[in-house]
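Example with several molecule types.
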Amino acid sequence: MSEIADKVKKIVVEHLGVEESKVTPEASFIDDLGADSLDTVELVMAFEEAFSVEIPEDAAEKIATVKDAIDYIEKQKAA
Amino acid sequence: MGIVSPLGLGLEHNWSRLIAGESGIGRIASFDPSDLPAHVAGEVPTGPTESGCLTLSDWVPVKDQKKMDRFIHLGLVAATEAVEDSGWKPESEEDRCRTGVMIGSGIGGLQTIYDASITVHEGRARRLSPFFIPSALINLVSGHVSIKYGFKGPNHSVVTACATGVHAIGDASRLIMLGDADVMVAGGAEAAVCPLGIAGFSSARALSTAFNDAPDKASRPWDRDRDGFVMGEGAGIVVLEEYEHAKARGAKIYGEIIGYGMSGDAYHITAPAEGHEGAYRAMQAAVRSAGISVSDIGYVNAHGTSTMADDLELQAVERLFGDAGRQLAMSSTKSAIGHLLGAAGAVEAIFSILAIRDNVAPPTLNLDNPSTESVIDRVAHEAQRRKIDIALSNSFGFGGTNASVIVRGV
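Resulting C-alpha cells for the full complex:
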C-alpha cells in the first residue's frame, strides 16, 4: 500500500473511531463506516490538512469511499 | 435523578459526600489559572467510574466526544444516570412521543467558542470543524439525550443564566401539567471553568479571589469574610413524570413538584434589587401555586452564592417566613460544590428532594461568622437531622431573573 493510502486509512480510523480492518478501499464512509454528512466534511478537512491539498466542494462531494479519497489525493500529489 | 458535580459522579455518592461536609473545591487543574485573579473552582474529578469519578469514555464514545463541548458531555452523563434510575424505557412510538427533554445551560460551549475564535482569527476559517456550532449550542444537550433514547416529545431548552436549572424543572413540570408530555427529562448542565469563563466573571468582580491559597474555604455563603462566588461545573438531571403515569408503572418516586414561582427584578443586569424583592415574589408565587403555608416548609436550599447578595436573599426569606422562620433550616450547598451556574438549580433541587427523603439538611460549609444574625438556622458546618416534609429551592440569575421550586416527599 502506498504511503498516501496508509495515511488516509489512519485518518479515517482516527476520525470515525472504526476498526482498521473495516477501512478497506471499497468501504463507503457513510454506508460502511458510520459517518454522517458532517463527519465527511470533517474528514475532507483532515485530508486537506494532512496532505496540504485543496479539495474543492464539488470534488469533495464525489469522495464517497476510501479509494475515492486515495485516488484524488494521489492525483493531486502527482500533478 | 442524576448528578455529576465537583463532589463526583452519581446521586448517592454526591449526597453522602455532601452530608459528610466534604468540599469539591480546589485549585483549578484543567488549565493554569496563575494569570487570572481567581485560582479556585469546583471541577468534576477525573478517575475510575467505580471510585465516583469521571471517565468520559465510559459515558460518551470517544469518536463522539469531539463533536460536543464539555457541558454536553456532563449533561449526557447525568441524564444517563437519571433515565436509567427512572426505569422509563418507552417501547411504543406513542410513549416515545409523550416523552420530552428540557435541559438548559447558562452559557453553553464557551471553551468551544474560544477555540473556534482562535482558528478564525488565525485565518483558518476554512479549517473550522463542522461540529463547532452543534458543539456549542445550548439546546444540544436536549438534542443528544433525545437521540440517545429516542424521546420524541417536546425538545426544549432553557437559558436564564444561574436560574436555568430551576426554570427547566419548573417549566418541564408545567408542560406535563398542560398535557404536552407524560414524561420530561429536565435539568441543567454547565462547564464554564475555562480561561474565558473565569476571566469574564472575574472582570465582573463576581468571583472569590481572597482564598486562592485555601480553596476549600473560598465558598462561604453568609460568612462575613466571603468575597465572591466559586465557579463549579457539572450537571443535574431529573426525570419528571405525570403522577398517575408513574404510579401505574410502579416507578421509583423520589418526590413531587408541588410549587413553582418566577419573577423578574426589572432593576439591574447583575445586582439584585433591594431586599431581594424579586426573590421574595418568586418564592411567594411558588408557595401560592403549591397551596401550602410557609410553615409547612422545613428546608430551603438557598441560592446563597457567597456574595454580598446572600444577605438580601436572607432578608427576603425572613420576610416571607415571618415567625415560621424560627423552625426553618436553610443552607447553601454551593459552599461544597461552588456555583454550577445553569446546572446549580437542578443539582440543588435534587439535594432538596434527598433532604426530604433522608430528613437531613445538608450543611453550609465555612459559615464561621455570619455577617448578619438571623432566627433562621443556616446549618453551619454540619448536616442536621430534622423532619423535612417539604423543601423550597431558590435560583436567581443575571438579568434579574428569579425562580423557586417547591418539592414534597411522596
